[in-house]
Amino acid sequence: MSNANPAQVYRIPAFNDNYIWMLHNPLTKALAVIDPGEAEPVLAALKEHNLTPTEIVNTHHHGDHIGGNEVLRERFDIPVMAPASEESRIANITTPVRHGDRVTIAGYDAEVIETPGHTTGHVAFHLPDCGNGHGVAFVGDTLFSMGCGRVFEGTMAQMWASLSALRALPDQTLICAGHEYSASNAKYVASLNWPRAAAKAHMEAIHALRAKDEPTLPVMLKVEKDANPFLNCDADDLQQAMGMAGADPADVFAALREGKDAF
Ligand code: ZN
Ligand code: FE
């Protein structure tokens, strides 16, 4: 049964290509701000929609995800939920979270999934039921549309495991990622000559949206399961396209990620 109190998801563009997300609970008026890399666009959105934040949530310690924490925290006196392992790199965490923790975000049940790779302490938040008949996941810089985050701190095998954990979420999960990288990701995917019809269709959809300067996120996880090569490192057709039939999926992931880094 679906939650009778559907959440409202807000997407706030920040910097060149970041998205800051907000999750609003219309019943309780709780409002979570996820990965506020800068405060100004958040303050503008709050004013526009006449909302008041009640909590900050961070997926990882990078400045473009936490840079607005302090202004929002001081102005609204609100708690900060962030990975416990990042207490030395994220100031003033009030709600440290670990893998498997059950928490609430804007009053909705959420599960913490550790997703190391982009950074060692990176986590994602999965909200299985916050209305509209689907879940929502805030995935930071782990999963992007047609791509994934750069592996800065963890290992390639860790990042593959993190993406596999996100892939295991239900098809009907709305993926809220930290960056609008979809078009550049799609160009890289085109270069792979991966004969996957869903990938071709998704690339075309992304380019059509970007040609109109429209966002490609959030995106349903089902689309990414079918079209994102980084979620298909164990699929025969991708392995064949990469010349790596039968290889360890973590090695296929490493080749794919290194190819993107050099693209
Ligand atoms: Zn990052
Ligand atoms: Fe980022």
Polypeptide structure, described:
This protein has helices at residues 40-49, 63-66, 69-76, 156-167, 182-191, 197-211, 221-227, 236-241, 249-262; strands spanning 8-14, 18-24, 31-34, 55-57, 80-83, 95-97, 102-105, 108-114, 123-127, 135-140, 143-144, 147-148, 173-177, 219-220. With 263 residues, it is an alpha/beta fold. The protein has 2 domains: 8-177, 4-Layer Sandwich (Metallo-beta-lactamase, Chain A); 182-262, no CATH class. Strands 1-2-3-4-5-6 form a 6-stranded mixed beta sheet, with helices on one face. Strands 7-8-9-10-13-14 form a 6-stranded mixed beta sheet. β8 and β9 (123-127) form a beta hairpin. α4 packs across α9 (249-262) and α5 runs antiparallel to α6 (197-211). It is globular, with a radius of gyration of 18 Å. The protein starts with 7 loop residues before the first strand and ends with a helix. 44% of the residues are buried. The mean pLDDT is 97. Residues 62, 64-65, 141, 178-179 line the site of fe (iii) ion.
How do you describe this structure in short?
The protein is of the alpha/beta class and 263 residues long. The chain is built from nine helices and 14 strands. It is globular, with a radius of gyration of 18 Å.
